[in-house]
Amino acid sequence: MRPRILPALISLCIAACAGSATAKSTSSIHASSKEKQALKWIEKNTENQIQFLEKLVNINSGTTNVDGVREVGAIYAKAFEEIGMQTEWIELPAEMHRAGHLVARHHAKGKSASARKRVLLIGHLDTVFEKSSPFQRFERDGHIAHGPGTVDMKGGNGVILYALRALHHAGLLDDIEVTVYLTGDEEAPGLPLAVTRESLIAAIKSCDVALGFESLVDHLDTATIARRGFLGWTLNVKGTQGHSSLIFSDAMGYGAIYESARILDGFRKALAGQDNLTLSPGRVVGGTEVTDDNENGHGEAFGKANIIAKEVQTAGDLRALTPEQVAASQQTMQDIVAKNLPGTSATLVFAEGYPPMAPTRGNQRLLELLNQINHDLGRKDIEAVAPMRRGAADISFAAPFVPSMGGLGLLGDGDHSPAELVDLRSVPVATSRAALLIYRLSQMPR
Ligand SMILES: [Zn+2]
CA 234 to CA 292: how far, in whole Å? Predict the structure, then answer.
């Protein structure tokens, strides 16, 4: 789930990404001999990794296609089991119409295993393209492949799998305590989130660091260590119904529409212009009789010009970068709501949402490690993606608990549209970097 990236990305990338990890001779790479074995395996298996991606893209796994999501999950599960990982399918209540989640675990061997970091790798099995979409097939044209979920994010799941396969091949997986968590409903999460993300949060709490493999942004050498969270909110304002000629009087007051206008403009005056904060009312329905269906985004109102409005419902969202910014904004909004005009009352309710991923010191350290790895692979500095560029994702749930970094998947464009594509040259680059990152993190003390 993220806003569209620059449309010119691919042409930019063609110029900027000419050197890939595969183009470097392994002698110019700074890595241990076992790490180099893993890197060689990745280079040799790039075509195989692309074919595996093609197979999965050609199976529809739109979020509500429960059978399709499960089928995709079963293919990944088998692949993880083949390298000695244990898998588990997390079921969700049937009435949610969501497939559930795949978890694959590997326990480190050896005496000091429990002293080293436990790594969590996060992806998702579903796509936004349901069975009814005309966009269903993987189509390759040179180094570009179009298809649903190529970059969002079957490509990223493949980075996780092939990085672990490479480490297994090099004999390094034995040393790694790792959990892979692939959710089945990232694009349209089953609600309440307290239920559908319960086991993910438990997995996060049992690890020391979390990595997300949704797409790279702009070019091959980027990562995400900060992204905003979001919260839905609804504002319900009540006024005193009466003849319009009596508005502003002590008896009738100002009506629900003036009061809503006061509150919404108060939000704008108090909060617009803050760094990394947005607050947007998306739907307002007001009049004498109001019905509002927030789930389906549909509202209806009846009202007349000569009647003081009795009710206004507004639905909006709030996006912010840190938990402190969220809490302060909520307080500011409630303070504004409480100062009612005469003859009116108002309540503001916040729905559950995705927590912000703040740019913490722990996240910065992850970026520094990734940067070192990129240099060891003969590449340039990693650029941190601006927080405003990304929407929330499942990695956001990890951010309040453990150091987290996302955007480690493949490079592409057009996600959530029939123009979705992946630049296949990013396959060996992202997978090589992931293999070294997962291994080196897993060898650090907790
Ligand atoms: Zn998405």
Answer: 10
Helices marked H in 17-127 — which ranges? 33-44, 46-57, 66-82
- Taking the centre of ligand 1 as the mean of its atom positions, its distance from the CA of residue 100, in whole angstroms, is 17
Flag whether pLDDT at 356 surpasses 50: yes
Please give the distance, rounded to the nearest whole angstrom, from the Cα atom of residue 440 to the centre of ligand 1.
Answer: 29
Task: Give the span between the Cα atoms of 140 and 142, in whole angstroms.
Answer: 6
Q: Are 229 and 320 in contact (CB under 8 A)?
A: yes
Q: In a 10 Å sphere around its CB, with 0-12 CB exposed, 13-18 middle and 19+ buried, how is residue 251 labelled? A: exposed
319-336 residue pLDDT tens: 999 999 999 999 999 999
Cβ proximity of 40 and 26 under 8 Å = yes
* pTM recorded for the entire structure: 0.88
Q: What domains lie within the chain, and their CATH numbers?
A: 9-227+357-442 (3.40.630.10), 230-350 (3.30.70.360)
Residues 182 and 125: beta-carbon distance below 8 Å:
yes
CA dist 373 and 370 (Å) reads 5
Which tokens go with 140?
């390759």
Ligand 1 mean position, distance from CA 160 (Å): 17
For residue 149, how far is its CA from the centre of ligand 1 (angstroms)? 8
Q: What is the pLDDT of residues 68-84, one digit of tens each?
A: 999 999 999 999 999 99
Say which amino acid occupies 284.
Answer: V
The residue assigned the tokens 């005193």 is 240
> Is 50 in contact with 139 (CB distance < 8 Å)?
no
Backbone CA torsion sign across 222, 220, 170, 84 = positive
CA of 127 to the centre of ligand 1 (A): 7
Cβ pair 381, 371 in contact under 8 A:
yes
CA of 151 to the centre of ligand 1 (A): 9
**Alpha-carbon span 278 to 54, nearest angstrom:** 38
How far away, in angstroms, is 13 Cα from ligand 1 center?
21
Q: What is the distance in A from the centroid of ligand 1 to the CA of 397?
A: 16
My answer on whether omega of the bond before 93 falls inside 30° of 0, hence cis, is no
Centroid of ligand 1 to alpha carbon of 393 (angstroms) = 8
What is the rounded CA–CA span in Å between residue 222 and residue 408? Answer: 8
Using the mean position of ligand 1's atoms as its centre, give its distance from the Cα of residue 352 in Å. 19
